Amino acid sequence: MVKAKKYLGQHFLTDNNIANKISMSLVNPDNVPVLEVGPGTGVLTKELLKRNFDLTLVEVDIESVEYLKENLTQNFHLIHADFLKMDLHKYFESEVCIIGNFPYNISSQIFFKMLENRTMVPELCGMIQKEVAERIASVHGNKTYGILSILIQLYYKVEYLFTVSENVFNPPPKVKSAVVRMTRFRDKIEDVDEKKLFSVVKISFNQRRKTLRNSLKSFITTDTPTDHPFFALRPEQLKPVDFILLTNLLK
With 0-12 CB in 10 A as exposed, 13-18 as middle and 19+ as buried, what is 104? Predict the structure, then answer.
């Protein structure tokens, strides 16, 4: 059996019913290829194989790679690589859905990679730390609302699907987990500089206790209409779409 490695943030799923529930949470209406990130010992993989997806696994742990090769006989592709360093265009012609029991220590990085490759990723479904799931699904006005909430919600519909007990993992984590689904509704925002939009969101929340007039000083010029109501607010008071208008006010 594969030994869980702390430095990789591994907590192997052991419950087949939860694995089935995660697998069935991936809608994939157009039946595009599916990429499972960090399959570990293959508990979720077996459920995905039952759905006859064009399935690719990416696993950084060589011990897990060898285990999967020996114990799974169905048809799938297996890549020994670090997902965060992986060039999706090299392995997939057009689109790919992403799924997995994501390591807690890189879950945010996985979502940023999804955003960078949003033209390729119509759907992502994964299990992450409950606290992170709540943050991503959070609405404006909440303390948990932040950079990831906004950037993801600008492009994806976010659904908090269900909470998962720590007892279905080996070794069990110290916190609860949750499964979220993100379904893309656009991959480009017209009439805004998207690179600047991302910067505005990040800088706003780096000083989230300040009003936007103060935190965005570096963007403000003599032509900026700073009498606009947004500038008197803190960043968590704005909806995701409000940041599009805010970015355009900062031209």
Answer: middle
Which residue is it, tokens 């606009």?
A: 228
CA distances from 219 to 151, 165, 243 (A): 19, 45, 14
Domain boundary pick from 184, 207, 230: 184
Give the CB-side neighbour count of residue 136, counting CA atoms within 13 A: 30
Q: What are the pLDDT digits (tens) for 8-63? A: 777 889 999 999 999 999 999 999 999 999 999 999 999 999 999 999 999 999 99
Contact at 8 Å (CB) between 60 and 40? Answer: no
CA 118/CA 123 separation, integer angstroms: 9
Whether this prediction's pTM lies above 0.85 is answered by: yes
Residue pair 139/114 in contact (Cβ under 8 Å)? The answer is no
Q: What is the CATH number of the domain that holds 139?
A: 3.40.50.150
Quick check: 221 pLDDT over 80?
Answer: yes
DSSP for 82-94? -GGG--HHHH-SS
Q: Which of 189, 192, 186, 166 is nearest to 178 (CA)?
A: 166
Which residue, among 54, 192, 180, 184, has the nearest Cα to 118 in the 3D structure?
A: 184
Look up tokens 């039946």; give the residue. Answer: 31
Contact (Cβ atoms closer than 8 angstroms) between residue 19 and residue 82: no
Residue 161 and residue 206 in one domain? no
